[in-house]
Amino acid sequence: MQLQYSKLLTRAKTVSLYGFGQSIPMIAQLIISLLIIKKHSTALWGEYVTLLLWVNLIVIFSYFGNKNYLLKQFSEQPGKIYTTWLSNFSTRFLVFFLIGIFVFFIPLFEPYRLLILSWIFLLFYNQSFEVLILYQKDFKFNFITELIRNSSVVGVLLFFDGMLQLDQFLYIIIGGLLIKAIFYSVFYFKTLQSTKITLDSQSLIASIPFLIPMVLGTLRTKIDSYYGTIYFTKEDLSQYQIFISLIAILQLGAAYMINPFIKIFYRISKKTRNAIEKQFLFLGIIIGAIATTVIYVIITYIYEFTFSPTSYLLAYLFIITLFVHLLLINEFYKNDKQTLVAIIIGVTALVQIILGYFTIDTYQSIGALSIKMIGQWIVVLALLYFRKEFLKPSNSSV
Asked: Please, where are the H alpha helices in 64-129?
């Protein structure tokens, strides 16, 4: 019993360290946004968010399913982890090189092209190490790295004198990413220095099934924000993005609550699984009410922004599906239905793009939140329907 308790405690610590490490950047972003808005201007944060959204969309094409594909490869060939990783990184760097050239042709980036190129490269470089951290469970190191990096950025902004300009802010953000890159490089240098560098174009082709759902998923979950960069003022985009960031923290929390129990969920009977799904839906209803209230308090009394009751209702309707959504997605992946998931997400993204074109310009944040909520419900209902039609029912029982 004592041994079992010790193992459970060790596992809980590991999961917690991973969760804290992943949560620090999101929490730091909210602190940074508050500092920018209170000390400088709401418009400055809106300008930064506009660049951030498009930079993140562009850089995702250089990932090429990096994390999911390599995790599968590591499991199949555990003795070649670093050779596989370095070959994949070297090959994807060629893709990044092409993306870097593309940056110079985007009018939005014109005043800050070199800064944005540095920004994109550091995002690409740092993300490449995430799969090693996850597979090797280097969560303590990652936690310390994220803490130092984000604390440094917050500290500089806290003590910055004068009115901050966008280019100065970008230098500070890039400086934080450079700290992270140095930490990663030093930590893995000894292991990688003797690893032979080779190019592996086949890995890019094999990664495509993992890349497509990632790109479609990003478009689906952020299409409201991308429309915001077109139709919102910088001030309105700034306020909306902070509202959405608070919801995103809850999404992350839902994932960390569910992930430790995914293996158990797959081994249970259909009847028990359905009962658990209902329990998680009920949990979403309760947590959604609490979370929406907390978001209201933070938005109204800390940021001093004003959103309509309809905005909070739409946020609540989005939140209550989070737990069930994660369970369903993982069940499809478990049954090798990635292609079906990609189709569902792709069709949903198309519906959101069409709805967004006709609603966001007129209804602003209400329209943006509406297509976000509608897209979430379409995906959940579609997953429930196609699971009944295509997935094999479990024959196990509890």
From this structure: 66-76, 81-103, 113-128
Token pair for 169: 């802010």
* Beta carbons of 223 and 345 less than 8 angstroms apart: no
Q: Are 26 and 252 in contact (CB under 8 A)?
A: yes
CB atoms within 10 A of CB 249: 16
Q: Which two tokens stand for residue 136?
A: 């090797």
Digit-coded pLDDT (tens) for 311-322:
999 999 998 888
Which SS3 state, helix, strand or coil, does residue 32 take?
helix
How far, in Å, CA of 207 to CA of 202, rounded? 9
Specify the amino acid at residue 280: F
What's the pLDDT score for residue 283?
79
Model pLDDT for residues 253-269, shown as the tens digit of each residue = 666 666 555 556 656 66
Tell me the residue length of the chain.
398
Q: Cβ(244)–Cβ(53) under 8 Å?
A: no
What mean pLDDT is reported for the chain?
81
Dig out the tokens for 226 from the structure. Answer: 């991308």
- For the stretch 95-125, pLDDT in tens is 788 877 877 778 878 888 889 999 999 998 9
- Structure tokens belonging to residue 53: 């959204």
d(CA 167, CA 118): 13
Q: Are 358 and 351 in contact (CB under 8 A)?
A: no
Closest C-alpha to 298, from 254, 250, 366 = 250
Mean pLDDT of 324-349: 78
**204 Rama sector, left if φ>0, alpha if ψ -120 to 50, beta otherwise:** alpha
3 state DSSP class of 269: coil
CA separation (Å) from 64 to 67, 68, 339, 373?
Answer: 9, 9, 16, 28
Contact 232, 240 (CB under 8 A): yes
| Per-residue model confidence (pLDDT) at position 27 | 87
Q: Is 394 exposed, middle or buried (0-12, 13-18, 19+ CB in 10 A)?
A: middle
**Residue 390 in contact with residue 337, Cβ under 8 Å?**
yes
